[in-house]
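Q: My labmate handed me this sequence with no annotations at all. I'd like to see what the chain might look like in three dimensions before we decide whether it's worth expressing. Could you predict it?
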Amino acid sequence: MKTVSKIYLWLIFGLLYIPIIVLILFSFNASGNTGGGITGLSLYWYKELFNSPETFKALKNTLILALSSALISTVIGTAAAVGISKMKAKYIKKATLSLTNIPLMNPDIVTGISMMLLFVFVGGMLGLSEKLGFVTLLIAHITFCLPYVILSVRPRLQQMDKALPEAARDLGCTPLASFFKVELPGIMGGVVSGFIMAFTLSLDDFVVSYFTTGSRYQTLPLLIYSMTKKEVKPDIYALSTLIVLAVLVLLILSNVLGGRERSKK
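A: Here is what I predict for the chain of 265 residues:
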């Protein structure tokens, strides 16, 4: 039984990580032909990446969008988690949690189409010539990132000693000062984890972005998708490798911060 479980575990790991390893290997391939195998190791495609203005523009748009949506969703999500934790009525609290979890359960294509219809309808009512663009894309990303931030912050609020903010207020702190001096440092690990998760989700989103962006604003996943209709250039393999490494660093950072917080407790 142990042998079967180990084989099953390695099979799952293989299905998850072998495609990523192949991608990384082909980013160092001296030849641009993926069908012919690896002919040699070279940094040529990494050099070509830095000479591609279209790719770098899409990367810049993606990073601006991911950082903006992650920051805004982290602020709103943290405030929402604090507000939900302080609700007295259990039924209202459960109903609010259920509503915040809907974007998690909803298929991306349904979310994308529904938000596109909403933005087009509102843009038509306001008489806008460009109904979809960066603003609509940002709102859409904030919408699907919010539940993940709330899920990251709420457990930290539940673990925190409820007497600490009350003691701070007894010592003269206002509710706002008590939050920033006592509660926020106590849940900072969850806030950082929520920010990293929101940033990662926004970074690689395609379906929602496809339906809610305009023709003038193109993110990296949309650029790669447009290339698949013709040919994916090997410099995209190099860029994807750099993104994988960046996400790996963020995950390690998140785990290190979480481990330090647990060791302090």
